[in-house]
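Protein Entry — a single chain follows
Fields — amino acid sequence, structure tokens
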Amino acid sequence: MGAPMSRNPWHVAVVIPARNEEALLPRCLKSVLEACALLPVSVTTDVVVACDTSTDLTFEIAKQTLAKHGTVVATEAGAVGHARSLATELALRRYSGELRCCWLANTDADCCVPRSWLVDQLLFADQGIETVAGIVDVDSFEEHDIGVGVRFRKSYLIHEDGSHPHVHGANLGIRGDVYLRSGGWKGLTTAEDHDLWDRLLKTAARRTSTNAVKVLTSGRRVGRAPHGFAGALAAHNEMSA
């Protein structure tokens, strides 16, 4: 996809919750900053990391890597929904323009986004789409039994037109005014993404689910959020080959 040609002076804020992610956060932030750099010069950007109950160097790594490109905030909430909410609230406070021109791009600290990740989202935003649900793929299945990768990809439904039923906080974009109108992230420990997506439907937001926006996530067997993506992936180990 090419670069978006928007009449709006877009501002993109990337929001990332992180808990004890010193090993994978550098990869994530490097990919996010590369995606920011691919945007047209008219688009302003910000990256906000919410470091939640971390006991490692996550906070320090985020602060050093982002430097003038963003900021990091610490919380002891122990809930991914709260971390996303806190980071988003800060991102919106750091932006002084019209909320309808602010695009909130959400991902996770164990993810790696493609260089076109933000460009692709703004292409949808330029068409009047107010929220975009993308898909994920897994970087490695080495922690899992043989055959888990095949079973995962066979079960990960994508329709012929590229639409899909998945909702991942690791790959979700939403316009700022629509985010606030929906009530924003709730302080949930899991399924905060589905909760927000469902409320967006109730507010008649223009939603789209597409395989044109994809991120790579870690294939770890034990995740940070209970009953989250890592747990769903690990469940494939219990299935017969």
User: Anything to note?
Assistant: Confidence is low (pLDDT under 50) at residues 1-6. The two ends are 38 Å apart (CA to CA). Residues 80-93 form the longest helix (14 residues).
